[in-house]
């Protein structure tokens, strides 16, 4: 795999590959950056390059016995069945201590197929307290040939003792040119107008840009910007937002709209007067919490969009500031 596979993150990929080729590679890595920058896919590809034996084909990270991926498990047996059937499913809120302990038990033996193995935790931000403490112990004394890739959207949520034992690989927001290249590659049917709208809405996030293009969220984004500019005292715009979402939207469309709302708030923040910034930050924090809960709880779509609209309205520009002189 080449650096070009990670548009906008070529420097991070080169840094990783240089480390893999070195004789003194660090055992712990933080893949740090905002949500939606492709850190999870990067971690899997990086793990595959790490365990690949010289001259061998690039392995599949989903099936290789020396790549261990820890992420949110299905919420219960019924949700596990949905996952097995390839259907959308709800997840547990955290990566549990039992998952970390199970991984540590597997590390008691040597790698199966070579000299290296990778442990990917995605996202490390969501480990419960016991899981963090268990991970810290193995980070302090890692088994030979074992390397940890911790995907983190908010490094500050991790213990300083974990951060201090890891090398940070930073992921930057993408330029408009790079976002356009990502959309052209992954959503080739998107026309120029849709690409431009997606780039404008994404605030540097390829994840947001792709979901915008895939779900055609131009109308939804326009309504969000209208709410942020003018408020919605009569609930008219929130009604239009619910109509644009649709009566029975798939979960991936709901998630896309949540991330788009977060990006819309983030885009407002740099130019906002200090008196408004607190409201924007508070609404963004609430949306982040809602986005974290969405895979876990089966929200009613209508209530979800009203909640999103309400948070946007709470951060709207003050009405006297919104009126022209």
Automatic annotation (TrEMBL):
Keywords: Nucleotidyltransferase, Transferase. It comes from the Bacteria. Pfam families: DNA_pol3_delta2. GO terms for biological process: DNA-templated DNA replication. GO terms for molecular function: DNA-directed DNA polymerase activity. InterPro entries: DNA_Rep/Repair_Clamp_Loader, P-loop_NTPase. GO terms for cellular component: DNA polymerase III complex. Its EC number is 2.7.7.7. This is DNA polymerase-3 subunit delta. It comes from Novosphingobium chloroacetimidivorans.
């Amino acid at each position: 795999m080449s650096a070009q596979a990670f548009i906008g993150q070529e420097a991070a990929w080169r840094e990783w590959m240089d480390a893999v080729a070195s004789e003194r590679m660090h055992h712990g890595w933080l893949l740090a950056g905002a949500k939606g920058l492709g850190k999870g896919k990067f971690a899997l590809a990086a793990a595959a390059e790490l365990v690949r034996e010289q001259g061998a084909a690039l392995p599949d990270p989903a099936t290789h016995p020396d790549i261990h991926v820890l992420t949110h498990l299905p919420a219960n047996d019924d949700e596990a069945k949905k996952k097995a059937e390839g259907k959308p499913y709800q997840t547990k809120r955290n990566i549990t201590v039992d998952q970390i302990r199970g991984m540590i038990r597997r590390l008691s033996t040597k790698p199966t197929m070579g000299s290296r193995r990778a442990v990917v935790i995605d996202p490390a931000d969501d480990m419960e307290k016991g899981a963090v403490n268990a991970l810290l112990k193995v980070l302090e004394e890692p088994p030979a040939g074992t390397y940890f890739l911790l995907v983190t959207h908010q490094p500050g949520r991790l213990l300083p003792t974990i951060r201090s034992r890891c090398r940070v690989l930073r992921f930057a927001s993408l330029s408009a040119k790079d976002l356009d290249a990502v959309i052209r590659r992954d959503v080739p049917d998107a026309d120029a107008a849709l690409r431009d709208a997606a780039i404008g809405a994404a605030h540097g996030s390829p994840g947001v840009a792709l979901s915008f293009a895939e779900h055609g969220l131009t109308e939804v984004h326009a309504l969000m910007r209208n709410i942020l500019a003018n408020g919605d005292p009569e609930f008219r715009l929130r009604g239009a937002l619910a109509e644009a979402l649709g009566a029975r939207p798939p979960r991936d469309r709901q998630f896309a709209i949540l991330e788009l709302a977060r990006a819309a708030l983030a885009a407002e923040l740099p130019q906002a007067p200090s008196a408004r910034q607190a409201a924007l930050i508070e609404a963004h924090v609430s949306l982040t919490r809602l986005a974290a809960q969405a895979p876990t709880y089966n929200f009613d779509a209508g209530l979800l969009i009203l909640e999103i609209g309400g948070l946007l309205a709470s951060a709207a520009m003050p009405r006297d500031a919104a009126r022209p002189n």
